[in-house]
């Protein structure tokens, strides 16, 4: 098998909402699950972190008046809902999964234990890491980076709506220029909003490459996992 041995895939919560502004689109979740299942079937060990924006967006207006720490905890619980939905879609395809939560809730998910997570991956199970880092003030990008480093992933793959990193938002500026490859320092210096600065700095300090690619093109998850030239590589 060519490509990566172990990857950490970071999905936004919005990607599960399909075309809706919030909530979960069952068809979209199944479509993403099929792509990830194909990658696992090809022998790649897959860890997944899903954001919570699609659930949290529905209560975002109310959250403006809520204490930041409480709001962050609400966001973490939203990622658990998404993780369970994604796990269910994969299980329906016959793929074994484990949802591991940084916040203990044993009735719905395993508590996150690093060695156990690695063992699940080695057995070919897809591990979905839920509830962020369990700490407020940390984004799911940072949680994904932390888990990628802990499980010794070869790469962290950030799935987005655009096909890589640009000098400005390509959805707003038609003259935006794409970088096939860029350094961590340039991402930080130019304030490119690919991932939050904490996550990029952690990747830089630990030499963990980041691939930013377009999730909306069918087959891109497999192309990324097989190390095809796709999107933008940050290293």
Proportion of residues in extended strands: 15-25%
Biggest sheet features: 9 strands, mixed
CATH architecture: 3-Layer(aba) Sandwich
CATH superfamily: Acetylglutamate kinase-like
Task: Supply the helix-strand structural class.
Answer: alpha/beta
How would you characterize this protein structure?
The protein has one domain (6-234): Carbamate kinase. Helix content is 38%, strand content 19%. The chain contains nine helices and eleven strands. The strands form two sheets. A nine-stranded mixed sheet has the order 4-3-5-2-1-6-10-11-9, sandwiched between helices. A two-stranded antiparallel ribbon has the order 7-8. Helix 1 packs across helix 4 (68-92) and helix 6 packs parallel to helix 8. The model has no long low-confidence stretch (mean pLDDT 95).
Topology, pairings included?
Layout: E1 6-11, H1 26-41, E2 45-50, H2 53-56, H3 60-63, H4 68-92, E3 97-101, E4 110-111, H5 114-122, E5 126-130, H6 140-150, E6 155-160, E7 165-166, E8 178-179, E9 181-182, H7 184-189, H8 197-205, E10 210-214, H9 220-225, E11 232-234
Parallel strand pairs: 1-2, 1-6, 2-5, 3-4, 3-5, 6-10, 9-11
Antiparallel strand pairs: 7-8, 10-11
Helix pairs in contact: 1-4, 6-8
């Amino acid at each position: 098998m060519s490509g990566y041995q172990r990857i950490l895939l970071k999905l936004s919560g919005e990607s599960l909402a399909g075309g809706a502004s919030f909530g979960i689109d069952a068809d979209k979740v199944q479509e993403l699950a099929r792509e990830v299942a194909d990658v696992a079937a090809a022998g790649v060990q897959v860890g997944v972190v899903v954001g919570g924006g699609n659930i949290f967006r529905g209560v975002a207006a109310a959250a403006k008046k809520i204490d930041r720490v409480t709001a962050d905890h609400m966001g973490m619980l939203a990622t658990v809902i998404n993780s369970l939905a994604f796990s269910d879609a994969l299980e329906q395809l016959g793929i074994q999964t484990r949802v591991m939560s940084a916040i203990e809730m044993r009735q719905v998910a395993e508590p996150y234990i690093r060695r156990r997570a690695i063992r699940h991956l080695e057995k070919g199970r897809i591990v979905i890491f839920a509830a962020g880092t369990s700490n407020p003030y940390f984004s799911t990008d940072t949680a994904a980076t932390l888990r990628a480093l802990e499980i010794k992933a070869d790469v962290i793959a950030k799935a987005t709506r655009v096909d890589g990193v640009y000098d400005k938002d390509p959805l707003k500026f038609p003259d935006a220029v794409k970088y096939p490859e860029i350094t961590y320092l340039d991402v930080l210096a130019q304030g490119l909003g690919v991932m939050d600065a904490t996550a990029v700095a952690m990747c830089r300090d630990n030499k963990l490459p980041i691939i930013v690619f377009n999730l909306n093109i069918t087959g891109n998850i497999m192309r990324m996992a097989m190390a095809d030239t796709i999107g933008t590589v940050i290293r």
